[in-house]
Amino acid sequence: MSNKKTQKGAGQKGVLLRLIRMLFGFYPVLLPVTLICILFNAIISSIPSVFMQNVIAAVEQSWKTGDWASVSGQILGLVVILAVFYGFSLLAGFIYTQLMAVITQGSLAKLREKMFNGMQDLPIKYFDTHNHGNVMSYYTNDIDTLRQMISQSIPQLIISAVTVITVLSIMLYYSLWLTLVVLLGVFFMTLVVGKVGGSSSRYFIKQQQALGRTEGFVEEMMHGQKVVKVFCHEEETKEDFDKINDALFSDAEKANRYANMLMPILNNIGNVLYVFIALIGGILLINHAPNISISGLAFSISIVVPFLNMTKQFAGNISQVSNQLNSVIMGLAGTKRIFDLIDEKPETDEGYVTLVNARERADGTMEECEERTNVWAWKHPHKDGTVTYTRLAGDVRMFDVDFGYEPNKTVLHDVSLYAKPGQKVAFVGSTGAGKTTITNLINRFYDIADGKIRYDGININKIRKSDLRRSLGVVLQETNLFTGTVMDNIRYGRLDACDEECIAAAKLAGAHDFITRLPEGYNTHLSGNGSNLSQGQRQLLAIARAAVADPPVMILDEATSSIDTRTEAIVQRGMDALMTGRTVFVIAHRLSTVQNSNAIMVLDHGRIIERGTHEDLLAQKGTYYQLYTGALELD
């Protein structure tokens, strides 16, 4: 148990040190200036007790001598000095609050940027295995707890810690006996903080984790609201949410219950300590006890009164430290989650073969050029320093490929196929047969376990992933449109495409007619994943987006599954034009869309069990024949 606590404490300490290093890296000048202002402000807040002692000592002296004139002058001088100190303190406080606003918001902006940029480099596997709502929680709840910790908790901790050290030094300077009494009270305070505060911190960490799970569930239900209503699962969904929400309530309630207990207990200990100092100070005064201190001052009312003030200040700052610790723990929990996202292993890419603009020489060889020629070549540097250029044609071949999403669970077994430039290859089979997995491997969203995939004769592991994916056009069954105009969404396929090219792509996909009927045509604004469009219209835009990219290889993952029969005929004509001269991989449940394929692969449990043209497979009277005639259904 103690070992776990040690590791946990070391983990929180490591997160805090890393955060501090990061903040200093973001603001190497502003942060030290801010810390100096905070320290100055904290020290000045402890000075009044020294002035109070001097004033009371001067008044005591005047009672003995009756020299009120010199005493009033001395007090006036002390007040002026104190006013000057407070003026500097006010200036330092103003500077540090303004700088903290810049540092806090600037650091959060840089962290969000770091998180988002890092997220763009993560492999698809990360998003397949992590709840999207929980990922969103990094940018909202965790960032907010970090904001509160940087802007409030840490500065207050520094102020309280410096004040405690300064006041303790002044106490030791004036009286050892009274300081020991104060330290005894602090010892009891520390015990309470360790017991109650430790429990509070533990539940604050759990609360942050439960908050992420709750947001993940809400996000999932928002996406699936139509499914919930179609199947009348509202009551079951409410019950599931209640369980998650109750878990969040339980952790949050316990965390805040312990946190709310802490301050009243510490305040009461501080009040009891104040009374004890007054009693013991009075007893020492009555008995004319000798004063043990660094100052060498005699024990008098001028020491007891400031000591009472310092006791309250000391206890109050101890309470502040314990109160802010919970916010720091919660902030560190959020910071750890943020660092976990930043530290996620990015997608690796050892590829060195790149895609370049090219032109063909008279002798048939390729050469690289700067201008866009709509002719592309693979630039392949070799170990001997030579560079060869291979025309991008779209020849894709797989040799004895094995693959599994998990190491011990193979999904594809010994898959071999070839698709020559301009050929259309279709995959059919039941759900989970491995159709989409094959296209994911061609994209290198996942890497194969065994075998080889060659693209234009080049092992795709040698091709840089960004260049590989730039040569592929993908239309998924689930369409994703982004906030912006229709034109913006089509241009997403190739950002340097002009309006005329986007319109030509829309015409090719069969989307032009419905776009011109929209309120503002191509300038119609879309939001909410194109919620103001039908599913078929959204799919047509996705096809147009792939068309404007003008890739030599197209992957259509059930691209027409959400389109009605009439629209499918329109799209099919556009797709036929789009597929001319291109290699096309088609995944479809509707066998009518794959009949004109050059090759049809029938998959079952990750194996290709039949292959051939539509006529060949019908003649074999195997699985494809049964699917086509309705004797066997795709699930």
Structure explained in plain terms:
This protein has 635 residues and is α/β, with parallel strands linked by helices. It has 19 helices and 16 strands. The protein is 61% helix and 13% strand. The strands form 4 sheets. It has a 6-stranded mixed beta sheet, sandwiched between helices. It has a 4-stranded antiparallel beta sheet with strand order 2-1-3-4. The radius of gyration is 36 Å and the shape is elongated.
Helix and strand arrangement:
Elements lengths: L1 H25 L3 H15 L3 H18 L2 H53 L3 H6 L2 H43 L1 H48 L1 H6 L3 H53 L14 H42 L11 E7 L5 E3 L7 E6 L5 E5 L4 E8 L8 E8 L4 E6 L5 H8 L7 E6 L2 E2 L5 H6 L1 E4 L8 E2 H6 L7 H11 L2 H5 L8 E2 L8 H15 L3 E5 L7 H15 L3 E5 L11 E6 L2 E6 L1 H7 L2 H7 L6
Parallel strand pairs: 7-14, 7-15, 10-13, 13-14
Antiparallel strand pairs: 1-2, 1-3, 3-4, 5-6, 5-8, 8-9, 11-12, 15-16
Summarize the model shown:
The protein contains 19 helices and 16 strands.
Most strands sheet: 6 strands, mixed
- Give the strand order of the largest sheet, numbering strands 1, 2, ... along the chain: 10-13-14-7-15-16
Between the first and last Cα atoms, what is the distance in angstroms?
Answer: 51 Å
Uncertain ranges: 1-10
What are the defining features of this structure?
single chain; 635 residues; alpha/beta; six-stranded mixed beta sheet; four-stranded antiparallel beta sheet; 19 helices; 61% helix; 13% strand; disordered N terminus
